[in-house]
Write the structure tokens for this entry.
Amino acid sequence: GQQVMQIPQYQHVQEGEDFTTYCNSSTTLSNIQWYKQRPGGHPVFLIHLVKSGEVKKQKRLTFQFGEAKKNSSLHITATQTTDVGTYFCAGMAGNNRKLIWGLGTSLGVNP
Amino acid sequence: NAGVTQTPKFQVLKTGQSMTLQCAQDMNHEYMSWYRQDPGMGLRLIHYSVGAGITDQGEVPNGYNVSRSTTEDFPLRLLSAAPSQTSVYFCASSNGRLRTEAFFGQGTRLTVV
């Protein structure tokens, strides 16, 4: 079946270091979304990407959608302790409205 | 604007008991879904609905029932609770168009003993 692989599973960084998480799909995606879940919280939508090669920025966060629409990345510049949480990618394939979720990357930030 | 409301927030059940997790949204969203989240397993889709009167199974539907009699409500029923159903459950909704965000409820932490 359709799968979205997300790496790494965990990462700890020192505050101020950069962080990147990657998602790779086994099939071409119509769009991909990113969510953040704080410890003990619920997933919160960050962004969605639709176009091949699309790049979007939100302050220190940069999101990319690959040219083949099979991979995506989230890059955080100069991490802060407020960035702690699990970051999930979720893709849609074709006209199917079901989201295919990655397993998430858990980010820890040491102050 | 309440968004997606889930109740209860916490629940302890004995094996074999049944219960219903409530989910309500006030955004007139067509699409609603239930997920369970277990450590290291990400979010797994249990059941979903594309509109009132329409439901379908996700990847882990066994042991759960759903109904969608109104646009607003999408309850999840555990028929006979088992320890394997100990998990955090999230309800989510979206407006049904393809490229829109999912809004999640606060979650229900369920323990089955």
Observations:
- The longest strand of chain A covers residues 85-92.
- The two ends of chain A are 41 Å apart (CA to CA).
- DSSP finds no helices and eleven strands in chain A.
- Chain A has a mean pLDDT of 94.
